[in-house]
Specification:
Helices cover 40% and strands 14% of the residues. With 378 residues, the chain is α/β, with parallel strands linked by helices. The protein folds into two domains: 3-8 and 250-371, Aspartate Aminotransferase, domain 1 (Alpha-Beta Complex); 28-248, 3-Layer(aba) Sandwich (Aspartate Aminotransferase, domain 2). The protein has a seven-stranded mixed β-sheet with strand order 2-8-7-6-5-3-4, with helices on both faces. Helix 1 runs parallel beside helix 6 and helix 3 (79-93) runs parallel beside helix 4. The protein is globular.
Length: 378
Amino acid sequence: MMIYLDNAATTASTIVYQNFYNPSSPHALGIKADRALRDARNCIENIFEKSHTHGLSSFLSQRTASAQHAGNVIFTSGGTEANNMAILGYSLAKHNAYLSCAGFEHPSILAPMQFAHDRNWATKTNTDIPMQGNVLVSISHVNHETGDIADLDNIAAKIKKDNPDAIIHVDGVQGFCKLALTMQNIDMYTFSGHKIHGVAGVGGIWVRKGCNIVPLQHGGGQESGWRSGTENVSGIVQMAQAAQYLHKDMDTNYTCVAKLKEIMRSLAVDLPDTRVNAISEHTSPYILNMSFLGVKGEVLVHALSEKGVFVSMGAACRSRKRARPALELMGFSTEIAESAIRFSFSHYNTIDEVEQARDIVLELVHRFRRINGLASIK
């Protein structure tokens, strides 16, 4: 038995592998690859364009909004490179800029901000956002640990009202093609293929036209000069196909996954001293973070793995670092952080799988609490 509930770390690729040649080559195979690359870019750009025009009443207003919010999609090796491109590219384009984010953001946001700060390219701040001058604010669409959904519309509007020149960068890795998106006031949005059932090693960034960032890779001038290096056409095409499928069925998938989350969440009813960890009640159905007090998260993750249930303790990118847990940085106690595990779902998971996993968690928590001399029955 294998029940995979670590989809926030990576998802299974469901697209058949296709081989493409170098899209910069002038022969027929290169031209074919270039066309496939253009089609994939148009597919992703159309998703963002629909996010701009969603809810507008007339075709004319849709065209006007589309022109005002047009952007370019640049393909990268994944979400980490895309976040680095946004943050470091802006830091190099705007001298003496301010970079701002919450202290519990993903390492691919925190690390490049610290890198730019250490080299005096920009000033990093976790608190006050300057009301004038060059400022970039990075926000996660969906928190990678708890699934909290950022109120992008209101946050971006408030920042832009206080400082119209501020640049809003959204790390959309956990939200792209899973949650409805309105791109009003958003300047950059990053995404990753292996989070949406594409392959690992490919991702991208949508950049609003007029938003100035400096390329980080130089060479052959691919991606219209934004990111040199031969494109991973096969991976990009697979990512675009996966994005198209998910975006089309987004509402259906949301409903499906919400049911799975509720089944697992019911553990908080059946087990005492069990916590659902989130800052607000507005969370993604794709992520559920729970603490089973009295049981170390690491112990429970390994025990579940031995039973064929695969979950995590949070972001895989943090697992190799000796840093404070993200939950502690979000204000949760050390006890809650150390006993936390993260379930993350896909619409390919079934109710039967999640019910089985839930029963196994229940059994293991009872066992470990008995060993530790703790009561585990209400």
